[in-house]
């Protein structure tokens, strides 16, 4: 069992006691109790709260450090802004090279940050060794989102992919010597 937390505060010494920390706690179980081939990871995220003296996206732009928590204008850190979010994954391994995986992600963006919004997505996938030389992998993801500033009303989409991989083994024949 691994418990972890990634945190950031822009202009304070520590996220402990801060009124506006970015927090990303998680839990990782490489083996689920009584099901040793099941691996589980769950992560939460809270960032960019709008405060009385701050503004939406405070941690990514402010009056003192114009570029905020960016690198040349590219966002660093969390996959969401001004939101409370979470994601979870589970993987069951049949062998070292064959497994099933499932995931879920949820995000609630603060209404003060570009009008707010919501996202949910579900995913599943598989990796299977069919023979010593041939592998199959595939995944599917269903997403539902509602960000009125981008498009009115809920939107959804589906993404799927599949791949066959052929890895021929170099076999060296051994000749017998007289």
Helix content: under 10%
Dominant shape: elongated
Mean pLDDT: 83
Number of strands: 10
Major sheet: 8 strands, antiparallel
What's the Cα radius of gyration?
Answer: 23 Å
Structural class: mainly beta
Write the layout of secondary structure elements.
Elements: E1 2-8, E2 22-29, E3 38-47, E4 70-71, E5 74-75, E6 83-95, E7 98-109, E8 117-129, E9 134-146, E10 155-166
Antiparallel strand pairs: 1-2, 2-3, 3-6, 4-5, 6-7, 7-8, 8-9, 9-10
Question: Any descriptors?
Answer:
about 180 residues; mainly beta
Quick structural summary:
By secondary structure, the chain is mainly beta. Helix content is 0%, strand content 52%. Strand 6 (83-95) and strand 7 form a beta hairpin.
What does it look like?
The chain is mainly beta. It is 0% helix and 52% strand. It has strands at residues 2-8, 22-29, 38-47, 70-71, 74-75, 83-95, 98-109, 117-129, 134-146, 155-166. An 8-stranded antiparallel sheet has the order 1-2-3-6-7-8-9-10, with no helix packed on it. A two-stranded antiparallel sheet has the order 4-5. Strand 6 and strand 7 form a beta hairpin. It is elongated, with a radius of gyration of 23 Å. The N and C termini lie far apart (59 Å).
